[in-house]
Write a structure and sequence with these properties.
Layout: H1 2-20, H2 30-47, H3 53-65, H4 73-77
Helix pairs in contact: 1-2, 2-3
C-alpha cells in the first residue's frame, strides 16, 4: 500500500509540469491518469494531522488508494477532460 502511494506520488511529480501547463493529454498514460485522479486525496492526507493514530492513518490511506467508479471526477475538478470512453463520460 505504501509502495503504491509512493509510486502514484512519484508519477504525479514527474508529470506535474506537463499537467499544470495543460500539455498532458488525458487518457494517453494510465499511470498519469491514476495519479491525477488520486493526487487531491493523497495531498490532503499528507497535509493533515493524524488524530486517529497509525491504524486510522493506514485505514484512510487504504481507502484513498481503492479504485472508485469516478475515475474522471478528479480530472474534471482539476480542469482536465478525460477522453471519451475513459470513464464512461463524454468529453465536454
Amino acid at each position: 500500500m505504501i509502495a503504491r502511494a509512493r509510486r502514484v506520488l512519484g508519477t504525479y511529480d514527474r508529470a506535474e509540469t506537463m499537467i499544470q501547463a495543460g500539455l498532458y493529454d488525458p487518457g494517453s498514460d494510465a499511470a498519469i491518469d491514476e495519479a491525477i485522479r488520486l493526487w487531491p486525496g493523497l495531498d490532503a492526507f499528507l497535509s493533515e494531522d493524524a488524530p486517529d493514530g497509525i491504524a486510522g492513518s493506514f485505514a484512510r490511506l487504504e481507502s484513498l488508494l481503492e479504485p472508485d467508479d469516478a475515475a474522471g471526477a478528479a480530472s474534471d475538478a482539476r480542469g482536465l477532460k478525460p477522453k471519451a470512453g475513459l470513464s464512461g463520460s463524454s468529453p465536454r
